[in-house]
Each structure stands twice: as C-alpha cells, then as structure tokens.
Amino acid sequence: MAERSTAAVDVADNSGDEPLTAKADQSTADGVAKNRERDTEDVEAQGSGGTEGPGKTSPPELHSGHKLARRYRLEECVTRLDGFSSWRAVDEKLRRAVGVHILPADHTRARSVLAAARSSALLGDPRFVQVLDAVEENDLVYVVHEWLPDATELTTLLASGPLEVYDAYQMVSQISSAMAAAHREGLAHLRLNPNAVLRTSSGQWRIRGLAVNAALRGVGSDTPQRTDTEAIGALLYAALTQRWPYESDAYGLSGLPKDVGLIAPDQVRAGVHRGLSELSMRALANDGATASRHESPCTTPEELVKAIAEMPRIRPPEPAFTAPPDYQRTTYQQGTYGRGAQHPGATRPVPPPPPPLQSRTGKALKWAVSGLLIAALGLGSWQLADALMEQGNKSDDTGNTQTTDGNDKNSTAPKPVKTLSIQDAQEYVAKGDAQHPGDVGKTYDGNSSTYWKTSTFVEGPALAPYKPGVGIVYDLGSAQEVSTASIGLRYAGDHTTAKLYASDSLTPSSLDSMQEIGAVTTSGANAKVKVTKSVKTRYVLVWLTAVPYSGDDPSTYSDAGYKQAITDVKFTG
User: Fold this and answer.
1) For residue range 110-124, what is the model confidence (pLDDT) as tens digits?
2) Which domains are delineated in the chain?
3) 206 forms bridges with which residues in the sheet?
C-alpha cells in the first residue's frame, strides 16, 4: 500500500484510552476469568499530573517545547495517567504532527510497551494507526505514532445518535477484518473501545493503540481473540443503539437497565437492522449472553468476518437529489402544464373561454378571415412552385448537385468522428508503488484478452486514502482534440470511477499540473468518458480513483479484493 497520512486524533485522549475511565476485571458466565476492562468513571483528571499506583514511577517532568531526539517537539499533554503521559507533538524533520507516549525507562511496563510498539510497527497494516518510532534514550521510553487530523472517534460520532445502517455495517466489517489480520500475526488489542476506533473523512475506519494501549495499562488476557471479538460486538451494539451493552455508563453512552441482562439491539431501539442486531449478539455471547435466534456464537474475529460474509450485503443509500438554490421547477413538473404560474397559497380561477362569434357581424368577420387565409395559401403555393422550377432549371444548366458537405457554409451536419492512434504509453504513479508498468502496452494492442491490472486493495471501492488513484498516460503523437475515451474493463461491479486528464508530457510532475477534462462512474465492464472541457492535447491520463470488489482470479494470480484491469483503450476526436 501507499504511504498513510499522518495526523491527529481527538485531543481528548490521543493515547486511545477513554478519557477519565478505569477498568475492573470481570469473568465470563462460564467462570473463565478474563482481564477485560469494565467501563466505570475514573477518578483521574486529565492533565492533572497523574496518580501513582503501588510501585509505579512518577511520570517524567516534561513540558511543551521539549524535544525528543532533537526531532519531536512536544506541543500539548493530552493524557497523564498511571506513570505515563501522552502528547501531541511535531516531527520537525518531516514537518508533520505526531502523537507520543512517554514513560520512564525504569517503569515496570517500559519493556512490554517497547516490545508491543515494535511488534505493532512490523504489521504495517494501513487499517491501524501506525507506530512510527519506539525508542529508549536518556532514561525515557517513548513511542511515536500517527496523528490523524481528518479522523473522528466513534465516541464523538455516537454523541449525536446511532450510526446509519450502512455505516454500522462498514464499521464492523472493516474492524473485524483488520483484527482478524492482526491476530493472524499474533497481535491483540485488548482495549478495543469507541475511543480506539476512528473514521476518516474518506469513510475509512482506523484502529489505534494495537497492543500498545494494553501494554501501557498492563492489561492482558488468557483468551485474547475472545476478548477482542466481544469488544467488536460491543462496538456494533453501541453503533446500532447508542447504548453501551453493560450496566455501567461509559464513553458518553448510557448502560443497559440493571437486572435486565443483555437484550438484542432490535429490542432496544426500533428500526435496527435485524441481521446486524443478531451479529452483535453472536459476538457478545462471550460475555454470557445467549446467542440470538439459535445462531452459534462468534469467538474469534475470523469467525466474525465469516459471519459478515454470509449476510446479505448492505448497500449504501441512494443519494438524494438536492436542488440548487436557483433551481425552479417547471410548470409541467408542478402538475400545472398549460396553466400560468401561481403565487404560493393563492388560488387563481381558470378564466372562461371567450364567447363564440354568434352575431351577424361575427359571421361576416369569420368569412372574411377565411377568405384571406385561402388567398394567402394559394399565393404561397404558387411562389413555392415557381422557386422550385427555377432551382431545377439552374441544376440542369450547371450540372452541379447541391450538398451540405463542405459547400454549404450554414450546414449543421456533425463533424466526422475519427479514431486517434496511440503512439506510446506509460504508467503514472502519484503516490506509493507502481502497479504493473510493463503491461501498459497491452491496453492498446488490439487484443482484448491482454490487460494492465492494478494491485488488489483491502478496502474500496475508493482507493483514497491509500492512493489518490492509479492510471496510464497515453501519447497521441501530436496535439489532438479528444472527444471521448472508451475503456474496456476486466471486472464489473460496484463500482469503477475513471477520469481523464490533459497532460503536458508523458511523465507529468503531479495531478495538480494537469487539467481534468472528463469523468464517469460505471458498474459494467466498459467505461465511456466524454470530454466535457474542449482542449487540444497530445498526452491524456486515464486515471482510476475507485475499483470494484472481485473474487479470486487465478488467471491474473490475484486474490479477492478491490481491483481492476484495463483491456482496451480507444480515443476519438
């Protein structure tokens, strides 16, 4: 994948811990003790200097403006608790915002924090907030991680109400898939809560604090997969109901009524999607709940991923038409075709038809008008016949046939469409790694069975934020007026977005240096992009910004995921 943007999460708690909360151990209904944290109000006040537990070392005395490794300048302390502190900082070398966890090197958890941070950094999965550095120096241990300015915590999203069905579906799908990948590498989160789950402005869900947050708090579990699966169930429950599925209030959410037990989300709130309600109960069955509707419980993120795959796919809502401020409906749209526009709230009477001319004068007037019309028609017919005869004589004399092909200056015949030849092509890489640059020639070799393909992406259809797009620049040999681009696609599905850019060279410096001249979104195997901005250009970029989901394709040696391949490209002018 391409590089990920660095940024900040909510300053209320950038460490991934819920503000002002502490946890207590609890056991499952079958008597298996777990180290899962309960959600009760913490007595610590954020930024108060912290409270030392037994055998804990005081947090290091640091202040805004302090630099670590002559590079990371501390800006604001966002958490100070239990012997460690978390800061918003600036990486002066790369000029970007970062987050930093700091604790004394002799802290009882320093070794485990370093080990967790380094293990998390090795995963390199873009669905997790990335660990950028993990260092021990000058009697300090510090962990540097991404800071996401465009991300919003699930806690904040739920403050205004439950998520829409499609958003909840995307959240649980992406979080489950990410945690399944982490557990395959032997990594657990153990503190997966609404403060650790973030949604970016592009709609992607990210997880922060993988392994590190639990190490900072000294949290462990004998059944880490069950712990994380139950946490995902709680996240989905909260997303559907705006309630926390335990008796204690937490994360700004009210808990369930006491002595009622765990009830399904569709019994808590009307209109909850039944399939998602059942899914949350299957994950929460680890906490002693009865699996809903006789379905077996999910005890690992992998099982949760399979259960989601077996559900009917939830489609995004259709975009509603929003009229611009100056939009006015026609009288036909308003159901008043043939009548004049009326003022709002006013009732305009329909005028009666004019009375017929029944008097003697009226009859005379009608006969006079009729006579004039007959005379005019006769005169016009005679003039028309005379003109035609004269034109026929001219044609016989000159031997020329009148056409509208170049001889008639007022001709409205369309210009002939011509196919533009492609002389050369080159893959354009705006960010990260190239796709398959050696195959670009297969997109205009006249053979529909050959193609250039993208990599397989884990999220989609939009490629952002991992990549702004992928594509190929074509050389038309000379400056041409391009009218359309026909693009043959290997994979149909929801959905492919293709854009055209006019470029000044085969190797443009950036997208900003080019002019967008057309775009189209399709779910089929062909995309026809019509140029909306007339421009003469020698180089045209075909740019894919969204690709559909497709299963395993043995012929291309690609796994299931979001991907696309271009078989043929033709330009007309």
Assistant:
1) 999 999 999 999 998
2) 21-146 (3.30.200.20), 152-310 (1.10.510.10), 419-572 (2.60.120.260)
3) 198
